[in-house]
Amino acid sequence: MNENEIIGNISITKGRAEPYRQVYSNSSWFNDAEYFIIEDDGECLVIKKCYLEIPKKAMKLTSGKNFQFRSDLPLGKFEFDKEESNEDELVIYYT
C-alpha cells in the first residue's frame, strides 16, 4: 500500500433530531485539521480541510471525530473514493 493512499470510511447515523445526521470516521486523514467544509451534491459527499482561513460555514471536528449537520444523507457506512480523494479533500459516493 502506498503511504499517501487515502483509505478509510465514514459512518452516517441519525443526529440529535430529524433532519440532522452525524458523520463519524476514525481515519487518520482527519488528524491534521480542526475545521472542515462539507458539500453534498446529491450523489457524493466532499469533505475539505480548512487550514489558515476558516469560512463561516466550516464545521469543527469534535474530539470524538464527528460532525453533526442538517442533511438527509442515507444512513450507513461508506468508503472513501481512493481515485478522487487526496490529502486535502475526501470524496465519498453514497448513491
Task: Record keyword descriptors for this entry.
95 residues; mainly beta; four-stranded antiparallel β-sheet
Could you explain the architecture of this structure?
- The chain has one domain.
- The chain contains no helices and eight strands.
- Strands 6-2-1-7 form a four-stranded antiparallel β-sheet, with no helix packed on it.
- With 95 residues, it is an all-beta fold.
- The radius of gyration is 13 Å and the shape is globular.
- The model has no long low-confidence stretch (mean pLDDT 90).
- The termini are far apart.
**Helix/strand class:** mainly beta
> How do the strands of the widest beta sheet line up side by side?
6-2-1-7
Number of domains: 1
Order of helices and strands: EEEEEEEE
Euclidean distance between termini CA atoms:
27 Å
- Overall shape: globular
Total number of beta strands: 8
Radius of gyration: 13 Å
Helical segment tally?
0
User: Biggest sheet, open or closed, and with what strands and sense?
Assistant: 4 strands, antiparallel
Q: What does the secondary structure layout of this molecule look like, with pairings?
A:
Elements: E1 9-14, E2 20-24, E3 35-40, E4 44-50, E5 59-60, E6 66-70, E7 76-79, E8 89-93
Antiparallel strand pairs: 1-2, 1-7, 2-6, 3-4, 3-5, 4-8
